Amino acid sequence: MVLDDDRQGDAVIEVAMRLFAAFGYDGTSLQAVAEATGQDPAWIQERFSDKLGLYLAVIERSHQAERVVVENALSALPDAADRREVAAAMYRLTDDYLRFCIANPQIPALWMHRWLGDAADIPDLERNYALRLINRTRDALRGAARAGLIDDRVDLELMVRTLIWSVYGFLHGEALARGGSSLADDPETQRRFQNHLHQLVDRVFKLTED
Known about the structure:
Largest sheet: none
Low-confidence stretches: none
Order of helices and strands: HHHHHHHHH
Distance between the termini: 63 Å
Radius of gyration: 19 Å
């Protein structure tokens, strides 16, 4: 029974994530989640307490998935011996993060709703989730800066945020894909953007010689 409840809970979280990503926290009701999942609203309330509890479960699920991608990509950075290896680690980070966001567009959408004032009455989401990964990446880059492998004049936190803003804007901003096709169906556009991120990393951190 517990296993069945866990599976049902996971299914509710996945559906709720899509609804929160589409309509925001403020625009999504527990009733809408219940109707989309076919679950009894009373069961959802018993499992997650209320809409806030469900939303926090969604944010936690998305954060853990994102954390795995970031941690795996950063694993090579502390052992980087030269700028070429730093560049390879940062290329992996940007490429893996871009692929993750393309495969899971609902996760960037959750945070973009938040940026627009959604769930404004819920404090500390950024500090408890987004900032953890930003700071983790910043601190890994600080080690490379101390070792003289990247330009130590760069504002590392803003650079990490710039990469995130760029990916989010690419996915949810102006469409670059030809003929109105989606980015997921346009490998050439994805390749162009990957190369652009690599160039951004190279130029800001001065990893390659002009």
